[in-house]
User: Fold these one by one.
Assistant:
Number 1:
Amino acid sequence: MYTSRKAAFALGVVAALLWSPHFYVVSGLHAEGVPMLAAQFHLLFWPALAFLLVLFLGGRTSSLSVFQRRESYFLVLAAAGGYGFWMLRGLALEGGGHSHAHLLFYAAPLLMVLFSRFTPEKADWRSAAGLLLGFVGCVMIAESLTGPPGATGAAGGADLLALGAAACWALFSVMARPVVRDQSVLPMAALVTGIGAVCLFITCLSTGESPFDVSLPQLQTLVLTGIAVVGLMMAAWLKCLAGLPAAAAAPFWYLGLPFGLLWAHRAGWGVAGWWALGGVVLIFGGLRYALSGRRRAGITMSDIIRGQG
């Protein structure tokens, strides 16, 4: 459904803000012995349940019929953003890495630009340059994090899994854009998270990781994180994509790392202040550069239209 550009900008910031604690919460739960794939299942199951409950209470369950009208398309969306991303990210984080696996999620904005080349909404060179600048800032912030006591480095296989997860999120974002421009966000979020949760449940059982092997306090954390972090993030991001092409919205994801510094400090991670500060400056500089390019392009086009009128 229609979203103004200003609202889309705000929603992009909100999505990054909501996403920022995810890594530190699941890392803490994993350190307590929660299987990573089981955690990813809960992070999708509870928001899916919440979305379905809202649709039911609002008398809007008929809107889920959008799946039948575009079944193949929705299955690809769910495979990328509801299953592939969460499964690969869970395996990457379980593979022994902390900062590397976390950092490589932020390759997703660059991949959104790449995938947008196959759509009518191609990114311009200025947006790509701003994203490259922002990614350098992400690298600096990731390098500033020394991890909690006893943390180990990422394995090469974990890096590949994390990069695969980033590619899944980028593909999901680019493919979701045409749908959310015309359809309500809530049914789509319910379908993507619901299908993903079912697939992750089956994966957990097939790998011997029981999704029920969590304590009550851990379950409470997963429910809260699933609804408040993943569910609201998904809704905000899809609503953002209703107003902006994926490549234009992509730079907002970089804000997840500056916001996340507060969560890193709270989780007991060491932070090298000057590296982190330099990374924050580059991220905001890259975001400004990318968005100013979009603004100038829009003004030029409107000037042309008025001139022709």
Number 2:
Amino acid sequence: MTILTSNISAILLAGSAKDNFLFDPNIFTLVFSVVSIFLFALLFVFLRKRVVQMIRLRYIALVYGRYSFEFLTFFKENNIRSPYNGCIKDEITMHLMVFFRKIKNSQEFQTNTTIDYGQIPFMTNSKNLFKIKGKPDCMKVVAFNDLKFMVIGYGETLQGLRMKSMFFFLNDRFIMGEFLFSDLLRLKPANMAGTFSSKYLNGAPIDKEVFYIKDSTGNMLNYENNGFSISIKYLFSGDETTNKILTELFLAGDTQSEINVNAFRNEELLDRF
């Protein structure tokens, strides 16, 4: 009887020890830690590209800023949706090209009044623009060889009419401004054209829906009513380096300029699709 009791006690003690081993919190913690590390390592292997991108983007934002050419270029290079609206549907350079490849059946005028773009001086950099205008409503960039184009836009109103005011930069220098009116139901194009005639042409009649005005320093204005919107562009021509770059890019009849234009159009297709 004593022997039987001893055996039963030994079995119970062994079972109790086994149960303690199975539910040992230290063992459970160790197993959980190992599994967590393994899952984290596995997740990092599959998402390492995204992690590296996030680190790079954070670095670019700290060094160059969230409204810099470098910041926006990162999204284009990595096929990631930009956090900003694109301002325009077509390519940036297409807006500049109208001054070098004149629109057919347009009028051309000369003026003694200086053509400028409001209170923002030409050739200022983007940081100064942000200081004056604040946070932009839209941005878009494109790089071509060693040239960096960027457009920065703001939604504004003029006499109760909504419009978009855009600033075009080449290598971070403001070279062209554009006002874009898309609500033609509330806008009277004849009155607007008359305003430009009064300011620049001493009231001379304007008969076309598209016209150009050039001042004594070479600055130019392009007015275009295409039936859907009205665009007024202001090009600065006071910097020789900028003039040379744009002329080489867009000069009509030049073989290389045709290659450049086709490259810009391909860039537009890539952006859209």
